[in-house]
């Protein structure tokens, strides 16, 4: 079948599935909000146990990373992501999922060459960029005495 690029674009437009953007946006909002509400409930729980606000915030971050990694390992996070879409990309849980998923996918290749090597396939560039950006920002603050 010989088509021009314009004919191909028309063909794709005719056969492409329409995205339910309102539904997807609403689900992302609900699921992302639910993750944030869970984080707030966990923080309130830690604070009721006597932790200060800063320490409770740190404990919440650790707890959410652990829960995200656990749910990814049990293949539940992906099911939630299929339902809630972008709502599961709430930074800390989405990042934990991005680190754990490749590790699980490549565990059959061995601990070192599979799991450990592939763990940061997705998250590695994010970690590197974040580290370099924070160092550059710190240097700028020091040079201009803004600290």
Keywords for this entry:
147 residues; mainly alpha
**What does the main sheet amount to?**
none
Question: What is the strand content?
Answer: under 5%
Order of helices and strands: HHHHHHH
SS-based structural class?
mainly alpha
Report the average pLDDT across residues. 85
What's the total helix number? 7
Rough outline: extended
Low-pLDDT segments = none
Distance between the termini: 65 Å
**What's the alpha carbon Rg, rounded to whole Å?**
21 Å
Q: What level of helicity do the residues show?
A: over 70%
Whole-number total of structural domains: 1
How many individual β-strands? 0
Short note summarizing the structure:
With 147 residues, the chain is mainly α. The protein has 7 helices and no strands. The radius of gyration is 21 Å and the shape is extended.
Describe the structure in your own words.
This protein is an all-alpha fold and 147 residues long. The chain has one domain. It has 7 helices and no strands.
SSE inventory with pairings:
Layout: H1 5-15, H2 21-48, H3 53-73, H4 77-84, H5 91-105, H6 111-118, H7 124-143
Helix pairs in contact: 2-3, 3-5, 5-6
């Amino acid at each position: 079948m010989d088509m021009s690029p314009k004919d191909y674009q028309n063909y794709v437009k005719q056969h492409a599935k329409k995205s339910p953007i309102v539904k997807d946006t609403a689900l992302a909002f609900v699921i992302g909000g639910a993750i944030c509400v869970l984080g707030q409930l966990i923080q309130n729980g830690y604070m009721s146990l006597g932790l200060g606000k800063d320490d409770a915030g740190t404990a919440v971050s650790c707890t959410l990373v652990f829960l995200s990694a656990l749910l990814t390992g049990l293949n539940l996070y992906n099911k939630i992501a299929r339902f809630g879409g972008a709502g599961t990309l709430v930074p800390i849980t989405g990042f934990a999922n991005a680190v754990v998923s490749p590790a699980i996918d490549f565990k059959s290749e061995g601990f070192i060459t599979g799991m450990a090597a592939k763990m940061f396939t997705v998250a590695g560039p994010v970690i590197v960029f974040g580290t370099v950006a924070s160092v550059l920002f710190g240097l700028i603050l020091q040079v201009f005495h803004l600290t």
